[in-house]
Write a structure and sequence with these properties.
CATH superfamily: Flavodoxin domain
Shape: globular
Strand content: 15-25%
Number of strands: 6
Radius of gyration: 16 Å
Number of domains: 1
CATH architecture: 3-Layer(aba) Sandwich
Length: about 200
C-alpha cells in the first residue's frame, strides 16, 4: 500500500474557506484511489506557522518540524498551489526553502531523506503560468531529492484576466480528468518501484 500527502499552498489561511487547489487535489485523490493510494491528509500551509529559513527547525513556534515528519512519511507528495503573477505562490516557495535543509541531511550513503520518494504538482489559476509554475516546483523538488514521474503536473487555467476559478466550474473538464488519471497512474507506478527498490546511493 502506498500513501500520499497533499500540500495546499493557497494564500487562504482559513481552512473553512473554499480553495481551488483543494478542488484540484480532490480530482487527483479520485484517480489515486483507483491505484490503492490513500491521501492521508491535505495540509493547508497558510494555516500553519512555517517560519522563514532553510533549516529543519527555526526555533520556538515553528510548525515545520512536525510537517516535515509528515512529508517524509509519505511515498508520494502532492504539491498543490495557485498561480499568482504568473508563478507559483509565495507559500509554496516558503515550503521549498525549508526543504533546502534536506541537501545537508544525507545518510551514510549520501542520500537525502526525500530519496526514493515521488512528487507531483496540482496547479490552478485564472491566468497564465502553469508551465512556469510546474518548472519552478519540479526543479526545486528534484534539487532536494524527489523523483518526478512522467506527466507529473495536473493543472487548470482559466481565461486570461477572467474571474472564474476552478472550484466554480460546473464540471471538471475531461482533459483535466484524463491528465489526473495519467499523473496518478505514473506516480503510483514509480513510487511502488522505488519503495520496493530504493536508490542505492553512494558506498
Amino acid at each position: 500500500m502506498l500513501n500520499a500527502l497533499a500540500l495546499n499552498c493557497t494564500l487562504k489561511a482559513d481552512e473553512s474557506e473554499r480553495s481551488s487547489t483543494d478542488a484540484m487535489i480532490a480530482v487527483l485523490a479520485d484517480s489515486f484511489a483507483e491505484h490503492d493510494v490513500t491521501i492521508t491528509e491535505t495540509v493547508r500551509i497558510a494555516a500553519l506557522n512555517i517560519k522563514p529559513g532553510v533549516s529543519s527547525d527555526e526555533g520556538e513556534g515553528d510548525d515545520w518540524p512536525a510537517l516535515r515528519k509528515k512529508i517524509l512519511a509519505a511515498d508520494i507528495l502532492i504539491f498543490g498551489g495557485p498561480i499568482w503573477m504568473g508563478q507559483i505562490s509565495s507559500i509554496a516557495k516558503r515550503v521549498l526553502e525549508r526543504m533546502d535543509a534536506f541537501i545537508s541531511e544525507t545518510d551514510d550513503q549520501s542520500r537525502m531523506p526525500s530519496y526514493s520518494k515521488v512528487a507531483i504538482a496540482a496547479i490552478v489559476g485564472n491566468e497564465d503560468g502553469a508551465h512556469f509554475s510546474s518548472a519552478q516546483l519540479f526543479q526545486a523538488l528534484n534539487d532536494v531529492g524527489y523523483t518526478i514521474p512522467a506527466v507529473a503536473a495536473c493543472y487548470w487555467v482559466g481565461e486570461a484576466m477572467g474571474s472564474t476559478d476552478f472550484q466554480d466550474l460546473d464540471k471538471t473538464p475531461n482533459k483535466v480528468t484524463e491528465t489526473a488519471a495519467m499523473v496518478a497512474g505514473n506516480a503510483a507506478h514509480l513510487a511502488g518501484l522505488l519503495k520496493a527498490k530504493p536508490y542505492p546511493g553512494q558506498d
